[in-house]
Amino acid sequence: MRSPVFLILLAALFALGAPAQAERLKDMASIAGVRENQLSGYGIVVGLDGTGDQTTQTPFTVQAIMSMLQQKGVTMPPGTQLQLKNVAAVMVTASLPPFAQPGQTIDVTVSSMGNAKSLRGGTLLMTPLQGADGQVYAIAQGNLVVGGAGASSGGSSVQVNTLSVGKISNGATVERAVPSTLGQDNQIRLELKETGFATAARVVEAINDQFGPGVATALDGRVIRVRTPSSSDQRVAFLGLLEGIDVRPAAAAAKVIMNARTGSVVMNQNVTLDACAISHGNLSVTITSENQVSQPAPLSLGTTVASQQAKVELKKDPGKVLHVEGGASLAEVVKAMNAIGATPQDLLAILQALKAAGALHAELEII
């Protein structure tokens, strides 16, 4: 049975020889100011079937209930101790999408704050949702949906999901719109998701080829300024075309990512190795480069081509030696190590040693 490392590596090997594919500008960059805004609020869920907060241990639930009753005109006698089992204090969170207008609805997530056993079957009372500026942007209310599956056998039961979190689809109504400065001064700012001067230059070139010279200007390796039409309808059509432009990003920096728990290794096509030798326990790795010259036949008008080949030799015990020849790539080293049964710990130690010795020309990230 093939190891998980080999399977991950096999996919990486197919990707190594493939050139970078063109991507839509919409997938590579975002427009400054066009973003979601996080909202949150403190609320009360009622109607639970005895699975609410234990009020003796969560006094804030009792305080919230008494405050709500006072707002409804109900005054509790002094010294009254509420013993509630069907109520839970919750935090309500939501994401306000860009350009959301009053009257539109958004989904909300309701999470228990206290020691409620379950929110299933509960109803969220009217809860104001505030932004980072303290202003109320939406009001949430509705019946919770707590999904999941359970199984019982022989008197024992197993619950797969978490019962202390529920959702309300379209459970909040937007009450305030976030001011937008899109197209201010007849320009926008594109922000690349990954900083890269070469990629920014290619984006500027693609935009100017599409709409004319001088439309786009790179401010740095991430931000690009683009001139837009003055009218809103023309600006929207312009941005729609802008998002659909295909751009081939520049080659990414050489990087190797390894999961220390599973042994999975992922690398990009820019990873290279120098000649080196490593000894790790009873496992030895030797990487050498051999120069090969291809000379054309006489009178063929061809040219002499010189290339460098790598030879990878791994040895785990005196009776088993594996030779791999090809380009000087880390992919072949990892593939050869998997072929002789090296463990993820062996692979991790060797990759770290290669990086420390300066033979691995890539950033090594261990997760």
UniProtKB/TrEMBL annotation:
Which keywords fit this entry according to its UniProt record?
Bacterial flagellum, Cell projection, Cilium, Flagellum, Signal
This chain belongs to the protein called: Flagellar P-ring protein
Q: Which family does it belong to?
A: Belongs to the FlgI family.
The protein's job, in short, is: Assembles around the rod to form the L-ring and probably protects the motor/basal body from shearing forces during rotation.
Endpoints of the signal sequence: 1-22
Q: Tell me the compartments it is located in.
A: Bacterial flagellum basal body
Q: What is its main location?
A: other
Q: Which organism is it from?
A: Massilia solisilvae
Q: Which NCBIfam families match?
A: PRK05303.1
| Subunit details | The basal body constitutes a major portion of the flagellar organelle and consists of four rings (L,P,S, and M) mounted on a central rod.
Q: InterPro entries, alphabetically?
A: Flag_FlgI (IPR001782)
